[in-house]
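Apologies for my clumsy wording, but can you show me some protein sequence, whichever is easiest, together with the matching structure tokens, please?
=====
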Amino acid sequence: MTKLIRLSDQNPTQQELEVYELVLDITGRYNIDPSSSVEAENFFVDLLASYEGNLEDIADWLDQQIRLDFKVIDKWPKWIQNSDWVYIEGKPAVFIGQIDLSVANNNLASQIFHDDVSFYVFIGEEGIKTVIMQQF
């Protein structure tokens, strides 16, 4: 079992800091931020707690877990701001797609939004709950 430190942890060990840096490196490859929300942090804390291998193999294991747990229908999101993956019932939601609006090319969009905006559509694995979030 490997512990992932929380941002609020006081006095983490050197090994915990190294694991945290490794998690940031690997999740960064997918543009996922494990500290973007309480749900994200809880997911990654639980994920790392389930790891039973040795530290030398954790990077490959984590890379594989991200590809299994973070599902996309077509393309990965291109975030305008920081990564803000949606979690439903403690698990990463499936990314359906993205709608990008440019205010420069759309009179109505420029009346509604001050800047360009992207809408990100996520759905729970059961297909029941849908979440649409926006960044601008």
In short: The helical segments are 14-29, 38-49, 58-69, 107-112. The longest helix spans residues 14-29. The chain has a mean pLDDT of 87.
